[in-house]
Specification:
It is a single chain. The chain has 296 residues and is α/β, with parallel strands linked by helices. The protein has a single domain, classed as Spore Coat Polysaccharide Biosynthesis Protein SpsA, Chain A. Helix content is 35%, strand content 17%. The strands form two sheets. It has a seven-stranded mixed β-sheet with strand order 3-2-1-4-7-6-8, with helices on both faces.
Length: 296
Amino acid sequence: MKEINIAISASKSYIKYARVMIASVYAAHPKNKVNLFVFYVDDKVATYQKIMKRQSRKTNENNSVNFIKVDPELLKKIDDGKGWALDLWARWYALDFISKDHDRVLLLGVDTFIRGDISEFYFQDMLGYYFACTADFYINHTEPSQWPGIKDEMDRMGLDDKKRYINGDVVLVNLKETRGKISFLSFVDAYAKNRFECWDQDVITYCFNSYIKFQNSYAYNYFPNLNLENVNDLENIKDVKILHFAGGPKPWLVAPWDAKKFNGIPEWWGVAKREGLVNPISSLIYVIRKILKFLR
């Protein structure tokens, strides 16, 4: 039985939605053993450990779930109270934590969704590469005038090809190659030294660009709701293996009855319902939000 290792970071606000993401992984790979590693900073995240262990066994009793706390003291040097949630960095502790029994791990954002078997991507030959990931879909389908901060950083770092700017929420890490070369602390230090605009994805883009094996973003990191003139979402979404709800509304911020207005979100809510995330209280919350929005 082949094993697939998945690593995520989760905050107390996002951990319940991670159940949908990992449920989509299980559904697409019923014959694989899936090892989930949840790295966290806030102790409240750990309260979901039993729930997610039960969830894992529903598909395959061989699946495993590991919750790993990352000492917040290790992140103090980069905690300036700005930008994305500090919890995001916790997933990079996978560089140190995951044992030599595993030669790779796939880091996923909680706002991703697996729509099909990703074995071809996961088990690909990565000899000589540290990371397999895709160019950022938004950056590669828009002009620099729409992302001036990132463009300024590209110029500062000497990156003249936007196709080599990656998105950091779907990253396959070749642990066989990174061991002894990159550690959690050295990865965090690379950011602390440079204070990049987009955190960990910029560390990969600017510090390890020659060690990236680029993948097809239309298959493995597709942003479904950008509404770009030159992108046909309705056609492209048919062959997508990994959806990433970036650049548009997060599925959990869209009421289930409004999901059909968006690409991919009805699928997300279908899994959320099976996982018990839809109940009278949650439905009431969406109604209250809609009333408040109307009153404003």
